[in-house]
Amino acid sequence: MDSGKITLLIHTIKYLRFKQIYFRLYYYFRNKFLKTNYTKSLKKDITPLVWENSLLYHNSYSPVDNTFTFLNLPYKFKNSIDWNYSQLGKLWTYNLNYFDFLNQENIGVNQGVFLIEDFLKNNAVLKDGKESYTISLRGINWIKFLSKNQIYDAKINQELYNHYQILSKNIEYHLLGNHVLENGFSLLFGAYYFKDTYLFKKSKLILETELKEQILGDGAHFELSPMYQLILLHRLLDCIKLIQLNNWKGEELLDFLQMSAERMLSWLEAVTYDNGNIPMVNDSTYNIAFTSNQLYKYAKELNLEWKKGKLSDSGYRKLKKDNFELFVDVGDVGPDYQPAHAHSDTFNFELYKNDEPIVVDVGVSTYEKNEIRQQERSTESHNTVKIGNQNQTKVWGGFRVAERAKVKILKDDFNAVKASHNGYKKLGILHSREFEIEDKKIIIQDSLSNKYEGEQMAFLHFHPHIKKINILDNKLNIEDHQISFSFEKGFYKIEEDNYNYSWGFNKTEKAKKFTIFFKQELTTKISI
C-alpha cells in the first residue's frame, strides 16, 4: 500500500468512534471462529397487530410479468426470482430485499404471500437479504402486510422471528448513524408483533440513545441529508402509529417518539421550499422518500403539532423574500464519525424564484463506487468555490471522507450569513463567503485569505428547464426568468459547459453549468 493511501486511511479512521472499531473487529472474529445459532423456536401463537397504511409506496412490482423496478431500472425475472440478483448494483439488490412492494399502491394479498413464501424457500442461500439493514426494512414491511391483512401463518412467523434473532445479535454498531436507527425502529415492530420483551428493551434503548444523539438542536438528522430526514421521519411516524394503535408496552416510549418527530418536522418545514421540494444537498434525490407534504399529513393524522423551526445546528440557512428562496450550507461535514452521505460542498447554495428552481445542486444518481459517484460528491459539482485541483473535503471510496473542511460562522442574521472554512489549509488559504439578500437582489462575496497562482473558480449549476442563458462580458442573463448574474472584483472570465442533473438514481438530464474564474476576490450580484 502506497503512502498516499495510508495517509488517506489515517485521516478517515481517526474520526471513528471506539465503538465502531470494536464492533467491526468483534463481528469479524465472532463470525469467523464461532458458529452462532439464530434459530429460536416460537412457542406461542402470534396475533397480527392492528394496522392500516397511511402511506403507500409506488408500484415497484408487476405480477403480470414478474418485473421489479427499483432506482429507475426494471428487471424481469423470466422464471423464478433470484433474490441475490446483483447485475444492477448492490442498492438494487437491497431494494429487492426490502419488500416495500408488499405495501405498494397495487398489490394483492395472494401475490404478497407468494412473494414472502418464495423468499423463504431461498432462505438458505440469501446474501444481502441476511444483512441487518435489509432485515430491518423487510421486517417492518412484512409485519405491516401481515397485520393489515390479518394473515396467520406459523411458518412465516417462525422465519421472521429467526430473522429478528439475527438482527438483535448484529446491530450495526460498526456503522452507527441511520443504520442503527433503522435497526431500532424495526426491533420495535418486531417486539410488538411477537410480544417480545427482550426485543422491546433493546429497541427502546437504541431509540432513546440514538434519537437523542442523531437529532440536532434544530431538528435536523445529523447526517444532513434532507432525503434521509424524510426517510427516518417516515419510519418514526410509523412507530408512533404502531404504539397508538396497539396497547402493549410502548406508552413509556410514546411521548419521547412524538417529541422527536415534532422536532424533525419543524426542521423539515424550515428547509422545504414553498413548492414542496426539498433541497437536493448531500445524498438527496427524487422518488426515494415520501414528500414533505405527505409526511405533514401523516403527522397530523397522528395528532402531532409543530411549528416551523429556526435553522441552527445543522449549518443550513434559508434566506427568503417574497419572490425567491435562497438555501445555503455554512455547516461542517457531519457527523464526524459517520459522514457516508456527505459531499465536498461547503458554502454550496440553491436558488428558487417564484417556486421554480434556478440554481440547483447536482443531486445523486448512483451509490455505486465509480467515477460518477466521485464526481457528484466533488466540490466542482456544487455551487461553491474550488481552488486549484483540490476538493475542500476529501471524499473517496463512495462513502468515505478523510480530511474535511471546518467552518467558522462570522455573521448570522435574518438577511445575511457569512462564514469561513479551512478546506484549503494545505494551500495556506481560508475561504470566506457571505450571502446577503435584499428585496430583489442577492449579493455573494467570496474572498481568499492569501494570493494563489493556480486557478480559482466559482461554479453555478442551472436547472435543466433553463435552456437559454446569455453571456455578455461579466454577466449571465436568463431573460425568460428575468434574472441576471454579474461578477465583479477579481473576476476575469466565464466558461460554459454541460453537466448531468439527477432526476433520481440512474436518471439524468443535461443542463448548463458555468465556471467563473477570479483572483482572490469575487462579488456575485444576482438581480431578481
Broad shape = globular
Number of helices: 12
Structural class by SSE content: alpha+beta
Low-confidence stretches: none
Mean pLDDT: 96
The largest sheet is: 10 strands, antiparallel
User: β content, as a range?
Assistant: 15-25%
Give me the count of strands.
19
Termini gap: 53 Å
Helix content: 25-40%
For the CA atoms, what is the radius of gyration?
A: 24 Å
Brief digest:
The protein has helices spanning 3-13, 18-33, 90-98, 109-121, 132-148, 154-168, 178-194, 197-214, 226-245, 251-271, 292-301, 371-377, and strands spanning 61-62, 67-70, 73-76, 316-321, 324-329, 349-353, 356-359, 385-387, 395-396, 400-401, 407-412, 416-424, 429-438, 441-448, 456-461, 470-472, 475-478, 483-504, 507-527. By secondary structure, it is an alpha+beta fold.
Describe the structure.
The chain has twelve helices and 19 strands. It is an alpha+beta fold. The strands form four sheets. Strands 8, 11, 12, 13, 14, 15, 16, 17, 18 and 19 form a ten-stranded antiparallel beta sheet that branches. Helix 9 packs parallel to helix 11. The termini are far apart. The model has no long low-confidence stretch (mean pLDDT 96).
List keywords for this structure.
single chain; 528 residues; alpha+beta; 10-stranded antiparallel β-sheet; 4-stranded antiparallel β-sheet; 19 strands; 33% helix; 24% strand
Task: Summarize the helices and strands and which ones pair or pack.
Blueprint: H1 3-13, H2 18-33, E1 61-62, E2 67-70, E3 73-76, H3 90-98, H4 109-121, H5 132-148, H6 154-168, H7 178-194, H8 197-214, H9 226-245, H10 251-271, H11 292-301, E4 316-321, E5 324-329, E6 349-353, E7 356-359, H12 371-377, E8 385-387, E9 395-396, E10 400-401, E11 407-412, E12 416-424, E13 429-438, E14 441-448, E15 456-461, E16 470-472, E17 475-478, E18 483-504, E19 507-527
Antiparallel strand pairs: 1-2, 2-3, 4-5, 5-6, 6-7, 8-15, 9-10, 11-12, 12-13, 13-14, 14-19, 15-19, 16-17, 17-18, 18-19
